[in-house]
Amino acid sequence: KQEVTQIPAALSVPEGENLVLNCSFTDSAIYNLQWFRQDPGKGLTSLLLIQSSQREQTSGRLNASLDKSSGRSTLYIAASQPGDSATYLCAVLVRSEKLVFGKGTKLTVNP
Amino acid sequence: NAGVTQTPKFQVLKTGQSMTLQCAQDMNHEYMSWYRQDPGMGLRLIHYSVGAGITDQGEVPNGYNVSRSTTEDFPLRLLSAAPSQTSVYFCASAPGLGYFYEQYFGPGTRLTVT
Questions:
Q1: How far is C-alpha A24 from the chain's CA centre?
Q2: Do B63 and B79 form a contact (C-beta atoms < 8 A)?
Q3: Using a CB-CB distance cutoff of 8 angstroms, which residues of chain A are in contact with residue B106?
Q4: Closest to A65 (Cα-Cα) out of A24, A17, A7
Q5: HSE of A62 in the Cβ direction (CA atoms, 13 Å)?
Q6: pLDDT in tens, B18-41
Q7: Mean pLDDT confidence for A33-46
Q8: Residue in A48, A45, A46 with CA at minimum distance from that of residue A61
Q9: Measured between alpha carbons, how far is A2 from A104 in angstroms, rounded to an integer?
Q10: Is residue B65 left, alpha or beta, with left meaning phi > 0 and alpha meaning psi from -120 to 50?
């Protein structure tokens, strides 16, 4: 059974810092990995999708990497801002039907 | 495009009542799904559909029913609400299945069963 773990569960950093969020999964048989952002009381906003054959994807200040063989992904946020404060979720797509989610990392960026 | 819409935003039910959570998308996506989000549990798949007329169970289907009569709509029915169904429910859609397709989520319905 696929399990997804995100460490740390919470992270607090000063504004301007570069940071890395970690995601690990137990079964490398995935189709893709998706990073989401969730603001309190809101839905999920897709940030980046990495197909299983890809190594990384970039969007603005965000860069996500994928190492399928070791079951790891990282989300790198450059020059963090208070507006980046949110919970970040990673999810892997298995058997083409189901996203398996981690429990998220709650990020606070302090001005 | 409105994307994925869900109604209602909030709902309070008494134990034993039934109701339908509505989900609609205007992106002509074939794949739609329902998840519930509980503290400490993450998001878990309830039911999904790969196209009109086709549905299947996810990880936690008990107590829920779905149907997909059109591409646009995928309602979730609670047959007899129980306090264990207190949760936030999210609907998601994607153009198809597999490597290439990003999933899009609605804003959620917060359900309380007393």
A1: 10
A2: yes
A3: 43
A4: A24
A5: 18
A6: 999 999 999 999 999 999 999 888
A7: 94
A8: A48
A9: 16
A10: beta
Q: Single out the residue of A77, A108, A103 nearest to residue A90, CA to CA.
A: A103
Query: Tokens 């990880």 belong to which residue?
Result: B59
CA–CA distance, B60 with B78 (Å, rounded to integer): 13
Cβ-contact B76, B21 below 8 angstroms:
yes
Chain B contact for A31 (CB, 8 A cutoff): yes
Tens digit of each residue's pLDDT (9 = 90 or more) over B55-98: 999 999 999 999 999 999 999 999 999 999 999 999 999 998 77
Cα–Cα dist B50/A60, whole Å: 32
Does A47 lie at the interface with B, CB-CB under 8 angstroms?
A: no
Amino acid letter for position B30: E
Q: Which residue type is seen at B84?
A: S
